[in-house]
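Example 5.3 — Folate-biopterin transporter 2
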Amino acid sequence: MQEDENLEDPSGEEAVEPNRGICECLCIPVHWFKMLSRELHWSFVFGVVVVYGISQGLGGALSTVGTKYYMKDVQMVQPSEAQVYAGITSIPWIVKPLWGLLTDVLPILGYRRRPYFVFAGFIGVISMLLLSLHKSLHLVLAILSLTAGSAGVAIADVTIDACIAHNSISHPSLAPDMQSLCAFSSSVGALIGFSISGIFVHFIGPMGVFGLLTIPAGLVFLVGFVLNEPHIPNFAYRQVNQKFIDAGKSMWTTLKSEDVWRPCLYMYLSFALSLNIYEGMFYWYTDSKDGPSFSQESVGFMYSIGSLGSLLGAILYQYALKDYAFRDLLFWTQLFYGLSGMLDLILVLRWNLKFGVPDFFFVIIVESVAQMTYRLKWMPMLVLSSKLCPSGIEGTFFALLMSIDNAGLLSSSWGGGFLLHILKIKRTRFDNLWLATLIRNVLRITPLCLLFLVPRADPNSSILPSESLSSKEELENSEPENIELVSLVNSVDGK
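Solution (predicted structure tokens):
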């Protein structure tokens, strides 16, 4: 009997240990969020979740699917035209330095950030209401409304990015964690958004989806009221012109440094050379003759699984890859990103059917791998960009770096549209889609030859040159209260 009891006790302990391990794993994200809220203030974390998770993630997913069907079924445009129009609506993201410069040097009613969130939410609500309520909106007005909605998201993005860049300087050890928070929020929001996007497009149509997008814009409006930042009384608006000049000089001093312009050039070329032909792929996905003829629900579910791959990429970066040197990590992520495009070629050529793999199952694999590799490629670039920002104009300079990336994405979109046009890929003609996919895949590999432009530094080291650091000090001395987010707990630097 005693031997039996001795055997039972260890078994009971073994049953408890796994449960304890599971609970500890589940508590890790909770403790992580609490740590970020304690060190960086809860309103900052809330702003990141709203802007990246709800506005860009959830809202971006609904907007992506809704806009694709809006252009295809309501406006009846060709895939090459839809590709070009998608580039036009992204133009507000290229002029992000303007929004960043305004938030850095031109406070409104004594606040640098909060009014810009309010403005971003306002134009987002108005533009989405116009698209949802006007049944026969002219194509030009529709594009203008989509561009205005994109501008609202871009202004909110650059405003929260300025807070992130500032906190990356004051809390350098938390810079990768902040980018992981952005990626996690964006991926979860996109996962939810794409999961429900096809259902909403099916039942309420793309115009109804635009009506739902007023909710994310309204939450951005709310961020402008709850964000915790110091009030700047009696701001000298007469000095705004001089501040613009000083900011421009500081930006130029930093940008002309070899340690800065070289990675900027790489980031632009790495995006520009990866031609975007997603509109052609979408038209083929939904074609009943040559394509798989996916339903609206299937398209939404397909993109949602891709968002899950993006989330896995963010988790993989946070827990396994965030401390690797930029050049080494970008080599492998760019290589895998290029190779993942070959899965699209297999799908377009229908080789998957020869191996007995259904289209829907295979396209889920394609989207998951593509989004995961794209996220792994994107995140070290974001961390690298935050490391290149001088204090005092971090919002402007980070926006400049992001606008360079977005200029690359615009070049990619228009280049892809031109490729679809010259290969004569139409609404119901996809004979050369395989060739467009092959050309895109080859160009995705070419940035590997440009990796010498990226520094060998790791995320924990300083990259800014000494002249930028000196201008940093000048700006900080001239504007000691610059864009400070109040923390609940004193930072390590304050000890």
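Remark. Residues 2-40 form the longest helix (39 residues).
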